[in-house]
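Module 6 notes. Inverse folding takes a fixed backbone as the condition and produces residue identities as the prediction. Think of it as a translation problem where the source language is geometry and the target language is the twenty amino acids. Below is one complete input and output pair. Work through it position by position during the lab.
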């Protein structure tokens, strides 16, 4: 609203002011459209597995005596798979709505603000994945590297390299403020995607390094995040050598329910929400997230980056 001076002399009476209320209708309209789209998307995502489940359950109820044992088992497995899909969808929706209700807080997300050793967190997560069947059976190679992560003085002269530091369990000095559980979740979502969308025999590499972030690198960011970005940040990268994401899709992949290939994503158990959860977690921690083709020329391989302000 804006207070306007009286229109002419005593237009409405002695000392009268006219209150002009200007609503930003375009912005409101945009938000309303986004909300409607979201509700429509959620309904659609829920309806698909639900109608599959209902179909099989109805068939089983109506004709379970005449269905051969083997077919019955197949039906039950399909019901199980689609129930799991509903479950992950609801889990992701709940996480997203919780994250969205938290205020951006550069010093860490929501109520949890602990000092997190990112080097340790990454090694822990990568170690966990090394125990997974896909990696144990040699279908994927998983590597992690910490580049120039030592405290500034330690990277000069004869000091051991950062990866040596990390492997020997020494302090790699990659501290951020925030919620370790959320940061673990973000990293896992990125590694899960690399596992989901790259063929057997691929290499997935997680790396972290400290960099001096450019000031105001992203004008769309809140002032707090920009001010913090002028300090040192940790840049985390999850890279794979899979088929990659087409250049025209890259700017959209962090949107809710955006998928390059819907069928592929669903078949892999994707909800279309993984990367928006990552984006929210990173932004709540005052960081930035972006994606690039690993090989920009051939459009091959995917690299997802995020930064976090150092504690
Ligand atoms: P989903 O649950 O479908 O994986 P995400 O939000 O995690 O949803 O990812 C959005 C889309 O981005 C995916 O459906 C997929 O098409 C694409 N994508 C994400 N990560 C990769 C990757 N590492 N390689 C190729 N495509 C990817």
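Target side of the pair, the amino acids:
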């Amino acid at each position: 609203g804006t207070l306007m001076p009286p229109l002419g002399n005593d237009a409405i009476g002695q000392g009268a002011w006219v209150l002009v209320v200007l609503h930003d209708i375009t912005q409101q309209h945009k938000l309303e459209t986004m909300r409607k789209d979201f509700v429509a998307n959620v309904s659609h995502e829920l309806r698909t597995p639900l109608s599959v489940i209902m179909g099989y359950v109805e068939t089983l109820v109506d004709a379970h005596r005449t269905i051969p044992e083997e077919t019955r088992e197949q039906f039950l497995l399909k019901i199980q798979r689609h129930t799991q899909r509903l479950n992950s969808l609801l889990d992701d929706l709940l996480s997203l709505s919780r994250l969205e209700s938290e205020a951006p807080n550069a010093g860490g997300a929501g109520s949890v603000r602990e000092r997190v050793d990112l080097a340790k967190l990454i090694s822990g997560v990568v170690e966990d994945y090394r125990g997974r069947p896909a990696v144990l059976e040699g279908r994927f190679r998983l590597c992690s590297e910490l580049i120039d992560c030592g405290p500034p003085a330690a990277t000069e002269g004869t000091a051991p390299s950062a990866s040596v530091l990390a492997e020997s369990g020494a302090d790699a000095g990659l501290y951020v403020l925030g919620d370790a559980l959320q940061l673990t979740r973000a990293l896992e979502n990125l590694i899960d995607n690399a596992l989901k969308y790259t063929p057997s025999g691929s290499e997935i590499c997680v790396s972290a390094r400290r960099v001096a972030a450019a000031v105001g690198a992203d004008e769309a960011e809140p002032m707090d995040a920009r001010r913090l970005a002028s300090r040192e940040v940790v840049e985390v990268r999850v890279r794979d050598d899979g088929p990659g994401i087409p250049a025209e899709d890259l700017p959209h992949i962090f949107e809710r329910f955006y998928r390059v290939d819907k069928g592929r994503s669903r078949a892999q158990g994707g909800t279309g929400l993984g990367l928006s959860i990552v984006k929210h977690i990173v932004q709540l921690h005052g960081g930035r997230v972006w994606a690039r083709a690993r090989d920009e020329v051939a459009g091959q391989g995917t690299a997802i980056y995020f930064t976090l302000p150092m504690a």
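Reference fact for the lab report: The two ends are 40 Å apart (CA to CA).
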